[in-house]
Structures are given as structure tokens and as C-alpha cells.
Amino acid sequence: MRGLAFLVPVRIKTNDEVHDINTVRESLVFLNQWPKPRRGPVYSCAVRSCNAAIAGQMTTDQARQAFVGFARIAGILAKTDLSAPPDAKVAERPPKGEGFS
């Protein structure tokens, strides 16, 4: 089985509940339950990207980014979503005695 797990879950908020979407397959399940009247081009792109990742024609991260884009446009991306790649540099505090106190 292909590695379809996201390195960082996508956090979405629906009906005041936060859900973590952890895999490409979970993304597709969520997308398939999305109301038909609210589906548009960004939705279609996310579905195609997830299907392409399952078929091995796109990376899991590319499918994740398409799903994040959909969630952002749909207004359901949780503010606590950690969309930065896991290797992104985070500002560190200088050691004691250096820099500001």
C-alpha cells in the first residue's frame, strides 16, 4: 500500500468541532460528503489531486496542499492548522546570556 498518510494532519472545523484529516483517503471521504451545492472548481481540484495521489500520479503532500486550499477557500480550515512543513525553521530563543534578557 502506498504511503498516503500526511506528515502533518489538516485541521478543519465544521459545526464548531475540530477534526484532524490524516490521510488522502480521509480527505476523499470528507470531500465526498461535502454538499453538492457548495462544490466548485477548488473542490474538484482537491478531489482530482487526492485521486491522483492514490493512483501514484501525484505525491501525498501535493494532495494535502490541494485539500488545504479547498479547506481554506471553503472557510473550514481551523486556525490551529499546522500547515508548515515539519522541517520548517522555527525561531529559537538565544541561549541565556546572549541576546535580550
Quick synopsis:
The protein is built from 3 helices and 2 strands, in the order ββααα. It has helices at residues 24-32, 41-54, 60-74; strands at residues 5-14, 17-23.
Write the layout of secondary structure elements.
Elements: E1 5-14, E2 17-23, H1 24-32, H2 41-54, H3 60-74
Antiparallel strand pairs: 1-2
Helix pairs in contact: 1-2, 2-3
Structural features:
single chain, alpha+beta, 17% strand
Describe the protein:
The chain has 3 helices and 2 strands; from the N terminus they run ββααα. The protein has a domain at 5-74. By secondary structure, it is α+β, with helices and mostly antiparallel strands. Helix content is 38%, strand content 17%.
> Which structural class best describes the helix and strand composition?
alpha+beta
Overall radius of gyration:
17 Å
In the predicted model, the low-confidence regions spanning at least 5 consecutive residues are 85-95
What separation lies between the terminal Cα atoms?
A: 51 Å
Q: Helical proportion? A: 25-40%
N-to-C SSE series?
EEHHH
Shape: globular
Spatial order of the strands forming the largest sheet? 1-2
Number of helices: 3
Beta-strand percent range: 15-25%
Number of strands: 2
Mean pLDDT comes to: 84
